[in-house]
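Before a colleague's protein record goes any further, I have to sign it off. What it holds is a sequence and that sequence's fold in token form. My question to you is simply how this chain folds and whether the tokens agree. Thanks in advance; the entry in question is below:
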Amino acid sequence: MKEHLSGDQVLEWMMGLRDAECEAHLRGCPECVEAIGKVAAPLRLFGAAVMELGSEVRTRKRAENRRRSWRLAYWPAALLAATLLIFAVLPLQRGQRQAGHGVTDAAVAVSDEVLLQHVESELSESVPGSMEPLARLMTNETGRTR
């Protein structure tokens, strides 16, 4: 090959598409080797910058993942502690409430009965209390309630 490598041939060589003719030409032509060096140097710098940036991003991601994993590890421990606390305090409060206020099953039953009677009386009203003025007005006009 007597002519120098074209720009396309230089790029093909850089991409690894090398044929024997180009290889032979490069062994005897310092100008083409220099042309390939001019293309290769910026690509090497770019590749190094990308690798360095990738390394920094990976390092940052690992640190974030470690912090996140520790935060996630605290939740089950906090939930377990809260559950144990609730189960430890709840029986104590029940016992204090029954002992402190003298609440018995009979008193609860009477309270339930009074509440049930109140609800039944509210339900048995023909007109709700808030509607009584309207019901009286209707009774005055028609002589009967609707």
Remarks:
- The radius of gyration is 45 Å.
- The chain is about 85% helix and 0% strand.
